[in-house]
Design goal:
Length: about 350
Amino acid sequence: MLLFINIVQLISSYKLKKDKQRLEKTVMERTHEINEKNIVLEQQKEEITVQRDLILESNEELQQQKEEIMTQRDLIEEKNREVTDSINYAKRIQEAVLPVSASARAVLGEHFILFKPKDIVSGDFYWTTKIVGNRQSAVNSPQSAVNSPQTADCKLPTADLLIVVVADCTGHGVPGALMSMLGISFLTEIVNKKEVTQASHVLNELRKEIINALQQKGTQGEQKDGMDIALVTINTETIELQYAGANNPLYIFSHLNNELIEIKPDKMPIAIYEQMEQFTNNDYQLQKGDLIYLLSDGYEDQFGGPKNKKFMIKQLKELFVKISDKQMNEQEEILNTTFEKWKGEHEQIDDVTILGLKI
């Protein structure tokens, strides 16, 4: 019996030892696993810390970049304001030499002027002056007319004359506006001081002045700055009309014949050109109630409509006929509404000027 007890005790002792060894082994394995996981966690912690530092550094850089961008934006906005203010001031100067006031335009009688610059200032311009017999008064200038000797190719008028011009200078915006100021200045000099009144002679003189002012030599690669223009001189007593044009035509709606007449221009600009000839002087006897239209090409060249195409001169001429029985202010409103509807959401591509005059 004692032997049995001893054997049982030995077996129990052996079993306890084995269990202890297994337990120690398990504890060691678990401890090793925990240590390894702690090492991994520590590495991950270090990586996270590095990433956090990188993010913080990136955020600082982004903040600096944002501040620099804001500073640059403020500078650009300030420059834009300065440029816009300068252009708006230039607009006031340009308007000062255009016959925009009611008193300046009174000499035109029944008329309208649709004037839509693409930008703040325009490369298109319109100009008019009234000449009373041998005495001239420039309605587009604050200065009184100055009498000077007549030119060799033009006699002083003995009747009252009305001279009307619509011109389209090279470019638009500020460059076009500078050209328009040149054109107005030279026209004032030619008509009011040199006393040139024949339509073709005015354009010949204007071309000389533009070529000289821009020092154009006709060399290869030279800038082709200049202008297209339609100019009419109307004897207000006999309502005889003279027209000369540089690329820009004249349209006359005949009240008696109920038709639109086009008088074509010379195909050369007011600038140096490959083949320069004298401008043609076209004579036409107007009748009471006739309408004349002078215009730049901005209206007809405007893209829009359902197929985003140009308005085209054919459609514009049809519109002139359609509105010919309307009052002049109604004609302007219809032309403007039609243009805006055609343009829609599209950008205006050029300056637009149409001057309508009822005889």
